[in-house]
Specification:
Radius of gyration: 20 Å
Shape: globular
Number of strands: 8
Order of helices and strands: HHEEEHEHHEHEHHHHEHEH
Strand order of the largest sheet: 1-2-4-3-5-6-7-8
Distance between the termini: 23 Å
Amino acid sequence: MPRHFLALAALPLLFLHQAAHAQACTRPGQAIDEKGFVPIGGIEQWVRIKGSSCANPIVLIVHGGPGNPTTPWADNVYKGWEKDFTIVQWDQRGAGKTFGRNPMKDEEPLVVERLRDDGVEVARHAARRFGKRKVILMGGSWSSVLGVYMAKSNPEMFCGFVSSAQVVGNALSQRGSYDATLALARAAGDADSVGKLDAIGAPPWTDPRSPGIIRRIMRKYEALGTEPAPKAWWTPDPAYATPKDEADYTAGEDYSWLQFVGLKGDGISSKIDLYKLGPKFALPVYMVQGEQDLLTMPEPSKRYFDFIQAPHKEYVLVPRAGHDPNPPMVDAQYRLLKKIGDCR
């Protein structure tokens, strides 16, 4: 691992910027394992890059949540991808180690367009370090929205967008999701869940706790028809399990989630409407949808897929998969990444 990258956090900002953008691929087949703070969007943001060969195509994984970085456990989930791809992740503004370095107050808004620009800058940083022109973009759930914004704003930076659990409108106010979950609870004679759903009522909600209540119930019923993710997937890397890292992760999660739902249902989620961005994409789009997903259900995601126009597009419905990552979902994503292949 290049020593200058390990030491990034200790460098002055000007030198930090120069070191972070130096060429990382110095010999054919060189393995890459880097992590550190990089100047992105005027602040230092945490970037993680790993792969078995620096010549491989780059995949930028944009994490969901918002506020749920994949960096603590991605080595478990995506380890098998590293032989074919260089995996790039970053803790978004307001999340994880980036939040720990740059704490944000509740009154400081999290803005989609700012995160979009940060993400594009991370993609450019990775491409420069490995001598590429383009990278593959991948996102799911919240980052399916952020990914659309990134793909539309700078399509020349990406050779394909792989989206999972596509959010189209206000996912927290989809009446269909509420009705489907309530129907499942009633059919199961689940009085506890029915009581909770009746208590919060149908969306839209003004109580920021309501989305969390229904999501927990959704997960219970998704689990009945999906393949469980291995428990080992969610064991964090020791580098992210220090008391400070855990506190920063939780604080960033709390901040970002409140920004997303809003104190009165008026957060980022209430303003999501991808149809308003128009149908045209100037890059291939691949949409992966869990068949048992109750939060971002197959019907609205397929309707949006049919709406969009792209040079190439594919819709993959994955049996025994729900909203959250599991082996069938990860396998479907990997097959699409292999189909996209190298892009320079």
